[in-house]
Structures are given as C-alpha cells and as structure tokens.
Design goal:
963 residues, alpha+beta, Arc Repressor Mutant, subunit A, Rossmann fold, 5-stranded antiparallel β-sheet, 5-stranded parallel β-sheet, 46 helices, 18 strands, 61% helix, elongated
Length: 963
C-alpha cells in the first residue's frame, strides 16, 4: 500500500505527531513509541487542550475489551517517556483523565514518501521474500508444551508493555525463565500483529555479524550478499510485526544496532528481546524478570507454602514426571527449603526436581551446599549452557572481560547486600580497569550478575545465592579468598564500630534501617574471623561492636554464641579492657535468657560488674547489676534481687540521666512486686511507665533486650490485679500487648506476655484471650530461641486446659513445663506452674504427687522470699488438703488463714479473695455457713470493680449459696 500526497502533522514546540507515518518526532528525530501508546497520543493531539476522560481513552484504544486503570497507566507512562523534555505537556486530572497542552497546529507535508508492506521493496535490496514463504503461517513459534507457572502477574504486564513501547527487553540471570516468559507473552498477541510474530534464536551464533542474516532467515527473506540491519529494515518497511530476539547477550552490540535500525525505519515493528545484558538504546523498556517467589523460613503451613510460586513450580514440574506425587506438609517444607537455597530460579529448580526423582528430596536438600556438582541433570534438548547449573553461570562469566571477572569475584565475598561504598572499599586493590566501582558495578547489573535494589536512600546491591556460590568458588580457585575475607572483616569491623557509636544518639528507626540489613555480612565476617585462617582480634572487636544490633533484633541466642566464641579465643592483651566488659556482659545476659542458668552465667555477670567498677564505667556497671537482678529473680532469690536493685538504684542516682533513672525505677518496682510490697512497687512502676521518651525507650531496649516502659507497664498490670483492680489490669494489659506487637521487638512482646499478659486473663477467666496470647508467646519465643519463655508458655497452656476442664492434658503439659523450667533455672514461673499442677493433680485424685508439688511450691517461695507468690502457694496447699484429705480440715484451715493474713498485710486483695473463697468452701463443707460468710463477705465487699471476672463470680455464687 502506497501513501502519498498531503499528510497531516500536529506540531507544538519541539514535538511533531505524524499521523500518516505514525511517528512521534522530538527535535526532528523519531522517538520510539508503541502502537497503542501512539493511538493515545493521536487522540490527545486531536483534542489538544481538552480533557479526554479515562473511559473515552480506554474505549477508543481498546474497543470492546475490559481494561483496568493499570493498563492505561502503563501506556501513559510510555507517552510521557517518549515526549522527553515535553512531558509536562501531558497533564493528569486525578480520577478524570488527561489533557495534551501546547499550541498544536496542523501542518501538511507535500513530500511524497512510499511506504511498502512486506513482501515488496521500495528499491532493489539484497533481500526478497522466499516464494514458498507466501504460504507460510504468520509466525514460526515452537509449540508450548508446558504451562507457565508463577508468572500470572508478569504475563499481562509484558503484553501491555509491548503495546506501549517499541522495544522491550526481558533481562535477568541465566535460567530465570526469560525465553519461556517471552514466548507465552507473544502467544497471546496473534491479533495485534498482522505481519506475524517471528522468533529469532541467536544462541547458536558465534559471529555477531550474522545477526541480520539470522533475522532475515527467520522472516523468510531470500538472502543475497551484503545482508545488513539497513537492508532488513528496508525489506520489512511498514509491516506490523512482532520480532523476538532471543538470547542476545553474547551478540549484544549487533542486536542493539539492529533494534535501533528497525525502530528508526520500520514504524510498525515491535521488538521483544531476551538477554542477560540490556541493549542500552533509546526507547528501550527494561523488564527485569524476577525469581519465583520463595517462602520465608518462618512460613510453615502447607497452604501458605503452596501460595509461593517457586513451591508451586517445583510441585508442577514433579507432577510431569510422577503423576502420583502428592506432597504432605513435611514434603512441602523440604521443597520450600530447596527453593530458598536456589533463589527461586526456575532452571535450578528443574535440575533439583530431576535429582529428587532419583535421590529423594531430603538428600537433595542436604547436598545443596555443593549445588554445582549436584544439579547437572538438565533436559537433553536444552541449550548446552542450560544443561547444568555450572554451565549456566560459566556462560555469563565467560562473556566478561578479565577485569570484570576479577570485580565479580571480589563481590562474591559479600553475604547478602552491599553498598557502592562497600564495593569500592573491598575492590579498591583489585585491577578493575577503572577509577572506582561505579562503572564495573553498573556493568555487572546490566549483565544480570548483580541485583540492584534502588530506594529513596542509598542504593543496595546483592548477588543471588547461587551466583555468589559460583563467585566464591572462583575466588578460592584463584587463591584470592583469604585476602578479600580479611579486607571484608576489617571493613565491617569499622561499620559496626560506627553503629555502636551512633546508636545512643540516632533515631532508632533510621539506625536500624542503616545497619539491620547488614547482618549477613556481619555473620560472614565473624565466620571468617574465628576460622583457622581468620583473625581473632578482628572477630573480638566486631562481635563486641555488634551487640546493640543483636539486641535490637532479639537475636539473643546468636549473640550468646558469638560472645562465647569470643571469650574462648579472647586476646590476652585485651583482658581488663572495655572490650572484655562488653563481651562478658553480652554473654552473661544472652545465656541467662536463652539457655540454662548456671554458675558460669552468674560469674560472667559478676565479672562484668567488677570490670565496670574498675574502669569507672558507671553505665556498664549499672547494666551488669540489672542483669544480676534479673538472674536472681529468675532463680527465685528475691532477697538478693532486692539488695542488688537498691545498689543499682544508688548508681542510677549518681549517673542521674533519664535512662538510668527509668531503668532502676522499672527494676526496683518489679523486684518490690516479687517480694510482695505492692504500695512501693506501684509507685516505682508508675514512675517508670511515665518515662516514655522514644530514645530512652529504645536505648533501654538495646541495653537490656526489652523495652523498660513495656516491662514496667506489665508489672503495673500485675500490681493492679493483685491490689484488686482486675478491670484496670486487663485494660492496661490490652494496651501493653498491642503496643508491644506494634514495636516488632520479639523479646519485649515475649516478656510482656510472660510477666502478666497470659496469667491475668487466665485468673480473670477470659480464656479466649489467654489462649490467643499463650499461642503468641510460644510462637515468638520459639522463633527467637527464648527457651525459658517457651517453657513458660507450655505451662500456661496446661493451666488453660485445666481451667477448661481437661485436667489430663493440663497435667501432661504442666509436668513438662515444670521439668523444663526447673532445668533452665527459671524458678519464678516454675513456682506458678507448679502450684497449678498441684491443683490439677488434686482434682485427678493423685494425692501423693499433689501434696509433693504443693509442698515444693511453698518451700521455693519461702527460700527466695517470694512474697508475691507465697499467699497463692499457701492457698493451693490448703486447697490440695481440702480436696485430698477431708479429715485434716484443721491443717487446711491453717494454710488458708495464713494465705489470707499475708495477702491482707501486703495489700494483695485479689490473692486474699482467692484464699478467703477456699476457706469459705472448707467451712461450708463443715456446715459452718455463718463462719464462711464472715470470712468471705468483708473481702468481697472491698472490691469496686471486676465483678464479672472468675474469682469474684465464684465468690458471689458461694455467698449466695451460704445465705
């Protein structure tokens, strides 16, 4: 078809819109723009300055199709990009539509220009259509024999991009699925390109000069001599076709030249490319094909695992080999582990599927540390570089220059992400052929060997785990690993020295954003430092500097592990220094929380306190004393805890900072609670609760692993419960738990749930809330290796089962918890669960064990001066006697009266009510209703709230019965 004569051209400033030629020109030069994006430009130009609604645009550009706003936005973005410096002319009216501003005038160009559709040619060229091709189908695509799994979002997006842009490049590392995605996307576009869809496979080309010939061959053009990008473009002319150039990275320059030429000379050609390296030409839209979605290690439920595309892909590919494959929860967990190790790369997962078919899933998962030897069973029909995992990476590595290969190997030393500054530092001694890391790093990103994560702040980079494993292998083969590992360790020692210096003064969120993501490099540096080839001095300094980060992230077990390694190899010349003080305190605190409490734990904390005093470091001396107080309370030595708390309070007064004073208000308040001094405890807890400056809160959390304000408010809720204000207690606890959840600080939440969050709802009879919080406690404590708190959660669950009438399950869980809490030395909650177990056993008729448990609980409370629990321990002993030995009423009455008197002297009204209710039952059973009423009624009458809670409801029922 020939178009000649006058042709309308809309012009405004630097822009021209040629409707006949379907061409947008800026400063006289054509700008690539997709077919539908050009239609949008045409409609807006014809209504220049007027509002064109979104609905009108969609109905005219996509007639009869259902199109969402996202699709329109993709094309509008393409138009803005094409307009370049004139992008401001395209105005958006939010929620309504668009206007094309400017002084647009219609011009007419008298010049004639012949436009020839395929297969004719405007002038003799060395290409012409093969005769037999006239009957050829409209494409040369292979038949798609497998479904596309895990790309449901990408597929429609790529189709939209192909109608908005002239050149779309799918890029990514080898095996990511670029070709498969391109073919599936193109298969849905058969009606958009009447000139056909043509696949050009470039993988087998070794000579870049043959790229035009490969395209001519795929299009069915008879080739003469001198085939070039220009001659191919002239032959195509104005044909509307889609050209897929597959596997371009090894002939990237030639592919870029061809694409530029076709875009410039063929207004209706759209090009879709797959390449590990982008073209870097004008008008190119780059879509980086992501790995398949992998589940986080915390995901356990089968339905949640299957929702991740990598697991879905693994299962789908396994089904093609074994139709009877039906994975259970355990199998899916192993599949998820394999997918995580393989970065969600489809080709690597296919290799794993093939190996699992012969070796089994678990052996494959266990052998992935040597993935390049294991994953070698590719499809026989695959390209050579796709037949083993190593071959896939060998191909990309082989395309690099020697300097690029060296730079790539250097980057493999990073575990997780890294910054440009880090890359520059580590590679500064490498011969990279340039003045710095910017150019080489950009090149490796463009070649899909490095992943760039660009944000509003500093850009970060990383190697996929499989790519990094390959790079580390190359590092070791070239004898470069030890030198770079030392440099890496020195660099991160400096990074975390800076982090330790900044954490007291910087905003907590910003500080964590800067340093939290670098934890994998911290781990890698420590692994090297404490290895036989490492440097213990660097490791000791790095471990000490990293303590604030571990505390922030509640990684207490990991912190303790590295502190132990540091102490075992501590440099003698550093003994007696602040560095030793930091490590001793870090080890003592973390092992106290996560492991069994031992004399070594106490000795370590005492050493830290001595070092703090000797060095005149009051801050660290206070920290050590705080830990010793917590340890004493956990081991139910409340007399020592009170003495140490007062010593810490004296030091805080000397330091006289808000943080120090808040610390000891919290510390002394909770210790006073445990010894049963409710009035003083409440005063201190309220003072600590009011100290809510964000930086004080954050600094305390880093120092002691939990938020002091949350702890003091939990203690205040416990105090309110004991004093007879159950509604106020429950309301405060709801606020505390919600706030602790929002803080995303697991140990603070675990502490709040253990201290009062689970127990008070249990005592109040709110069993649904208790169940929810117990589950949260076990989940959080379990996922952060807080073993003592997991044991407490199991014990609370046992008490919950008993409260619901399931004494058999309650006994099993409570017994297990009592044993574990005793082994770990977590005696404060050991007493709580032990008393509950005694009541459970009494209800089951196990007289001997019930009496033994009750006696042990009373003895433990008495040994440690635990005034808080003693009234309840005495009550339980009386209750066990009442239930199991009815003939010994005098002894039971004595225990009840002791509990009532002690609770009354402390101001513990709730404990007094529980004991008074037990005694009233005993007197009722002796046919002494008047005595029972005289005991219970005055206690009940002193309550002003909480009449719907379990204890008060039971007391009221008993009083009504007695009357």
């Amino acid at each position: 078809m020939v178009v000649g004569g006058l042709r309308p051209v809309f012009a405004s400033g630097e822009c021209e819109i040629d409707l006949a030629q379907r061409e947008l020109r800026v400063l006289g030069s054509p700008v690539p723009v997709g077919a539908r994006a050009f239609e949008i430009i045409e409609i807006l130009a014809q209504s220049a300055g007027e509002l064109v609604t979104k609905n009108e645009l969609m109905s005219r550009v996509w007639p009869g199709a259902i199109v969402n706003d996202n699709t329109l936005q993709v094309h509008i973005s393409a138009v803005r990009k094409a307009l370049g410096s004139g992008r401001a002319m395209l105005r958006t009216e939010s929620g309504r539509g668009y206007r094309l501003m400017g002084d647009w005038a219609i011009q007419h160009d008298p010049a004639e220009r012949a436009v020839v559709d395929l297969p004719q040619s405007r002038s003799p060229v060395p290409l012409r259509l093969l005769p037999e091709a006239k009957e050829a189908p409209a494409d040369n695509f292979p038949v798609l024999v497998t479904d596309l799994v895990g790309r449901s979002a990408a597929l429609p997006l790529i189709r939209e991009l192909l109608s908005a842009y002239r050149v779309v490049t799918l890029t990514g590392p080898g095996g990511i699925g670029k070709t498969t995605l391109a073919l599936h996307a193109a298969h849905g576009l058969d009606t958009a390109f009447d000139g056909g869809r043509w696949l050009v496979e470039l993988a087998s080309l070794s000579n870049p000069d043959l790229v035009p010939s490969a395209v001519a061959s795929a299009l069915g053009l008879r080739q003469g001599e001198g085939v070039s990008a220009e001659s191919v473009a002239r032959a195509i002319g104005a044909a509307r076709l889609l050209l897929i150039l597959d596997n371009c990275e090894h002939v990237i320059d030639a592919a870029a030249e061809l694409a530029e030429t076709l875009v410039r000379q063929c207004p209706r050609v759209t090009i879709l490319l797959t390449s590990r390296e982008i073209l870097r030409i004008d008008g190119e839209y780059v879509y980086r094909v992501p790995p398949l979605d992998v589940p986080a290690s915390s995901v356990e439920q089968s339905i949640d695992l299957l929702a991740h595309s990598s697991v879905e892909f693994f299962v789908a590919r396994t089904h093609t080999q074994d139709a009877n494959f039906t994975p259970d929860a355990a199998t899916l967990s192993v599949v998820a582990e394999i997918c995580r190790h393989l970065d969600g790369i489809p080709l690597a997962i296919e290799f794993a599927v093939a190996r699992a078919r012969t070796l089994g899933l678990s052996p494959v998962a266990a052998m992935l540390h040597d993935r390049f030897s294991l994953l070698t069973s590719g499809r026989r029909t695959a390209l050579p570089r796709h037949q083993t995992l190593r071959a896939t990476l060998d191909w990309s590595y082989g395309l690099l220059t020697r300097d690029e290969q060296l730079f790539f190997r250097c980057l493999a030393i990073f575990a997780g992400g890294f910054t440009l500054e880090a890359a520059s530092n580590i590679t500064s001694q490498a011969s990279t052929g340039g003045p710095g890391a910017v150019g080489p790093l950009a090149d490796l990103v463009a070649k899909s060997l490095v992943v760039a994560e660009v944000s509003e702040g500093e850009s970060r980079f990383r190697l996929l785990d499989t790519t990094r494993a390959y790079g580390l292998e190359k590092l070791r083969q070239n004898g470069e690993f030890d030198r770079l590992a030392r440099r890496h360790g020195e660099y991160y020692q400096a990074v975390f020295d800076r982090a330790e210096t900044e954490w007291e003064t910087r905003n907590a969120t910003e500080w964590l954003a800067d340093y939290g993501w670098q934890i994998n490099n911290l781990r890698a540096a420590l692994d090297w430092a404490f290895s036989p080839a490492g440097n213990v001095s660097i490791g000791a300094k790095l471990a000490a500097a990293a303590v604030p980060l571990w505390m922030h992230l509640s990684l207490l077990e990991e912190c303790g592990t590295w502190m132990a390694a540091t102490l075992d190899a501590f440099p003698p010349e550093r003994l007696g220094t602040r560095q030793e003080l930091v490590v001793q305190l870090g080890f003592g605190y973390t092992t106290m929380i996560t492991q069994r409490i031992s004399e070594k734990t106490r000795a370590t904390l005492e050493r830290a306190a001595e070092l703090g005093e000797a060095l005149g470091d009051l801050d660290y001396q206070l920290r050590a004393l705080v830990c010793l107080v917590v340890l004493s309370r956990m081991t139910a030595d409340f007399s020592s805890a009170l003495a140490l708390s007062r010593e810490a309070d004296a030091i805080a007064q000397e330091i006289s900072t808000p943080l120090a004073l808040a610390t000891t208000d919290c510390l002394l308040g909770s210790t006073l609670l445990w010894v049963g001094q409710y009035g003083q405890a409440r005063s201190r807890a309220e003072a600590a609760s009011r100290q809510d400056e964000p930086e004080v809160t954050r600094a305390h959390r880093v120092r002691h692993g939990y938020d002091h304000r949350m702890n003091s408010r939990s203690m205040l809720a416990q105090i309110l419960w004991g004093q007879g204000f159950p509604e106020q207690s429950l309301h405060l606890l709801e606020e505390v738990v919600v706030e602790a959840e929002q803080m995303s600080h697991p140990f603070t939440l675990a502490y709040a749930l253990t201290a009062a969050g689970c127990l008070v709802p249990l005592w109040a009879g709110d069993l649904q809330t208790a169940e929810h919080r117990i589950n949260r406690l076990k989940e959080y404590a379990g996922s952060h290796a807080l073993g003592s708190y997991v044991a407490a959660g199991v014990g609370f669950e046992g008490l919950l089962c008993a409260a619901r009438g399931d004494n058999a399950t309650g006994e099993r869980l409570a017994r297990a918890a009592v044993a574990e809490l005793h082994k770990r030395g977590f005696h404060v909650y050991h007493m709580v669960v032990l008393s509950g177990l005694a009541e459970i056993l009494a209800n089951l008729g196990d007289v001997t064990d019930a009496m033994a448990a009750a006696d042990e609980a009373v003895a433990c409370a008495d040994r440690g001066n635990n005034g808080w629990w003693m009234p309840e321990a005495l009550r339980v002993k009386g209750e066990v006697i009442r239930l199991t030995n009815p003939g010994n009423n005098r002894q039971a009455e004595d225990f009840f009266r002791r509990a009532i008197d002690l609770a009354h002297s402390q101001g513990g009204l709730s404990w007094e009510l529980r004991a008074a209710t037990g005694l009233a039952r005993l007197l009722r059973d002796q046919t002494r209703p008047a005595d029972a009423t005289a005991i219970l009624q005055p206690v009940y009458d002193r309550f002003t709230e909480g009449f719907g809670t379990a204890d008060l409801a039971r007391a009221k029922t008993l009083l009504d019965e007695l009357q």
